[in-house]
Amino acid sequence: MFGYTVGTEFNTQSGGIQQILAMTANSVILSGENSAETEVYLDRKVFEKNISEKRIEMRLPIAAPIELTKYQKEFASDKIKYMHAMQEVVEQGNKPTTRITYLKVIELVETLHPETMCSKHPGWKTLCKYWKRFVSSDYELEALACKKRDCRTRLSVATEAHLSAFINTAFSNSNSNIIKNYYRSYIRKAKKAAIENDEIKVVSQRTFRRRLGQLNEVSLKLNNPNLTQKERNRLLLSLQKKIKTHFALQRVELDRVCFNLCLIDDDTQVVTPSISLYLAIDVYTRAIISVVLDFGSENKIGVLNSLRNIFTSTDNLPFSGRPESIVLDNGPGYNNTLIKKLAESLSVNIVYCPSNHPEKKPFIESFNNNFRNSCLKGTHIETASGEFTIGLNSLVAKRTDKGASQTKPPKDVANLTVNDFKRLLNTYLVDYHNTPHPSTGKTPSELWKASLINTPRDHYSYDDVKKAFHVELFQDTSKLQPNGSVRCNKQVFESAELRELYGKLKEFGCNETPQVKVYFDHFDARQVTVTAMPYGSHKQIEVVARNIEVHDSPEPISFNELNKTANITESIDIEGVIPLNTGNVLKIEQFYPISKRRSPKRGPATPSYEDNNKAGLMTQARIQKSHKITSMQHVDVKSNPPPQEATRGAGLNENVRNVHETFEEDDVIHSSFDEFENKHGKDKW
């Protein structure tokens, strides 16, 4: 009834302490009030009567002091500043539970502790709960401690940023499904980062597993080949919400997208090969920071040009700078030594996605779908005569597209010039950058400007980093001339430093010309980098040499432009500025007329019946001649295509040689087999 047992202590009326030494059903033995007194024997009923009459009172056990963990102490110290501010505001006559008091407390805390302006404050009701607990405990700090935990439940800004950066990178470049391996790697990096920034803490494995598991779950669903486009778009949107960035150029995704679309060359009026675009999107702002038009297959030159365009800006596309990390495909154009060397020179982190996992780049994949539907299939194109179309009629649907009925090849329906297509891209992108994005609620232009103000970073233009793009070797070795000049792609480069280098490399009494290595950028022929290793030295010398003709050009000029050859890949820069309120509308002069383009006649001309009679050929001879002519039908001697250097995309097939290299132009006028055979001989067959 009274809850006592052997060992229970009692306070006596005289101030002494007695303890139960032994106890039976009828009696109790108590110790003396001090060491000098003897033990006391009491009847059980007398003992309980003394307790009832409060002659002796049971002593409650003294609670051991609360030992707070390191995290509990940090949590309590974070909240004590709010309690001190609350106490000051309440002493001024404000009620502690009103909204006005809460706002005054937050204002006072931010004034006294400016570092809290960058963190999330406790809510109104939460702060009232802390205040009640603090007052009830007679203003004890321990009352503000949270439940006993070893790590934070709410991550700090630095911890959240580090965790997001690691998970985003690990998700994009890895394909393992064992999360504990990811967590082990995360702990190593987090502890290393915590040395430089003590605000970074290691999160629990449970938190890490939940964050990464959400991404892997969506990625697994996106790999289902039976998904509809609507379901895929929904999952991509869900994936984008889980990949967090905090400022512009923190994460940039690159991709190459192909279209069944051919254009008309403005100069030669020749139909180009099917086009593709190299695109780069800034994840934080959703701004498109690089667009490159390409007329061939995926290649490293196009990727280099795409990366170079990230550092350039125009009036229509004013976004540029050095990204912290770039997310790339694992294709041959992206994964090669040139791209890695460039990224190392620029101090940019490369994240390669596993093969056949486009969902690892959800932002650029989502934009590709939107671009195809909104731009290529949704732009209002109107000619000067009033003719208009919605979308490009020359865009041929893929065979896998639902309801695809177009059977003609893209080259047969091409009706838009290259310059008009560039204007189409600029018009769409200006409208895109100044329209609120459904995911962010703000325009990419607004987010870009706000990020530059809130998170200022060093700005890098192309002129600041152009030397880093000298990554491609012209040839194994090049000769350095006595006048300090070298040749690269039919251009001559020289400098005073090269003349000094010639003297260092030229051995006394040696008649051989010194050998150097020349590194260049296809799209900037104003200068190259020359490297050499002097005799007896272990240090390589690098010298920048200028083009003697165009080194003072304010804008980059490509080697192809100087050599009068067509570019395989080019930027979409145009003259003039697109007005902001144009909308997704393009006005052109006219559509290029579609004409029937017949295949050229192939092989020598077949002799007529009259020609065979004049030659006096018998039946067997006519049959033999007919067989020889039929076997030559694959030789094109009638067509006369434009020269190779004037045709877009011609540089991709360097190993293919036209039959015109074998047969002279006058061969095409031969109308009989005998003339052709007499001209070239039978061995030509």
From TrEMBL:
Domain of life of the source: Bacteria
Region feature Disordered, mapped onto this chain: 630-665
Residues covered by the Integrase catalytic domain: 240-452
Record-given protein name: Transposase family protein
Source organism per UniProt: Shewanella electrodiphila
